[in-house]
Amino acid sequence: MDFSEITNQSRQAVKEILEAAKLRKGAIFVVGCSSSEILGDQIGTATNLDSANAVYDGIIPVCRENGILVAAQCCEHLNRALVVERETMEKYGFEQVNAIPQPNHAGGAFATVCYERFDDPVLVEDIGQKAEAGIDIGGTMIGMHMHSVVVPLRISLRKIGAAPIICARHRPKYVGGQRAIYDESLM
Question: Which family does this protein fall into (predicted)?
C-alpha cells in the first residue's frame, strides 16, 4: 500500500469538499474513517495505524489552514463518540466523556491517531448534529453528526485507497412554500 498516495487522495478530497461546502472558519468537519476498508478489508477487521496516519496527514493540515474544526468519529464500540480539540468542545458546549480510543479494541485507528496527534484532545459523546460537512471513508456512518439537511457531494474521487467515500455538506432548510424566494448561495 502506498501511504503517500492515501495522503494525497485525502488531501484532494478534503480540499474539494471544503470548496464545495463553502465552510466558514469555526465550522465542524466530521471524519469517519475505516483503516481496514482503505486496505481493502472489511470494516473493523484489519485496523492499520499507517493508513490512519496517512489520512490524518492529508485532512487535518488542510482543515487547520482553513480554520475548520475536525471531529474524528470513533467506531461503534465507543458508540461513535468523537475526538475533538478541547477548544472545539468548549466553543460548542459539548460534554466530555471518559474513554481513550484504541486501534484494535474500541475507537479505531483514525480516532486513536487523532487522540494522539491533536494538540489538546478530548472525547465527546456527540456533537449535537453540528457538523456542517464531512467525509465517510469506508462506510462508517457519519450522518448522525450532521445538521438535519444533508446534501451529498460528488467530488472527483470515489475512493481513498480501496475504501469508497461518501462526502456531504449541510444546507439550511427550505421554508415558506411555493411563494418563497431562496438564497441561491445557500443551496
Answer: Belongs to the UPF0340 family.
CATH number at residue 90: 3.40.50.10360
Q: How many domains does the chain have?
A: 1
pTM equals 0.93
Confidence of residue 157 (pLDDT cuts 50, 70, 90): very high
CA-CA distance, 168 to 131, in Å (whole number)? 10
Q: What Å distances lie between residue 10 and 4, 28, 53, 146, 183, CA to CA?
A: 10, 17, 11, 20, 31
For residue 83, CA distances in Å to 39, 60, 78, 171 come to: 23, 13, 11, 24
CA-to-CA distance for 71 and 29, rounded, in angstroms? 6
pLDDT digits (tens, 9 = 90+) for 26-40: 999 999 999 999 999
Per-residue pLDDT, 105: 76
pLDDT recorded at residue 11: 98
